[in-house]
Fold this protein.
Amino acid sequence: MFVTIRNRQSQSQNQTTDDCILTAGVDEAGRGPLAGPVVAAAVILDPGKPIPGLADSKTLSENKRNHLYELIKETSLSWSIAEASVEEIDHLNILQATLLAMQRAIEQLPIAAACALVDGNRVPKLTIPVKAIIKGDSKVNAISAASILAKVERDKIMDQYHQRYPEFSFHLHKGYGTKQHLDEIERFGILDLHRKSFKPVKNKLAGQHCVEKSSFDF
């Protein structure tokens, strides 16, 4: 399977079906890294349970993100986290894979959203009204909440990769193309979880192919 989905429906008996309330905020994490999936989250906040401190996940400390991650899951009306795999990223391209992960997150909400607000300038294909909001993760609380869920969830995945491949510092660089990560690729090679369509990885593979080919030229 290419997709991992986790979601939760509130147990509250006072949930409303008012369209204004059932607006999902949507955001992603992991478009830029050289490794791992792209993760998206959708969140419908409970207006009766405001969450202080919501902001763009990139502006928050790790401890603050982790605290809000649990709070969002506990108090929101509905939330969902989905991903698009490395294979899908390489097959579709990162933009289309990101939109696919967003689509999955929205469609898997246990309480269906009436409309969706998406961070950025592109939106996934949905059967409900959807609007893109540039820098929405710093303007709309529901999008901020989604950005936090997506970021923390993806960081957990990268921590697991580090446990599996301790020679790679995925727990530190999160798969981004830092000097440390590029040095690790040079030393230890390319893993299945690396995105073969991304230039640094693609160039490394091309170099390996040239070396392998030249070894057979007599």
About this structure: The longest strand covers residues 23-29. Strands lie at 6-9, 23-29, 38-44, 78-84, 115-119, 130-133. Helices lie at 62-75, 86-92, 94-107, 141-164, 170-173, 179-188, 199-214.
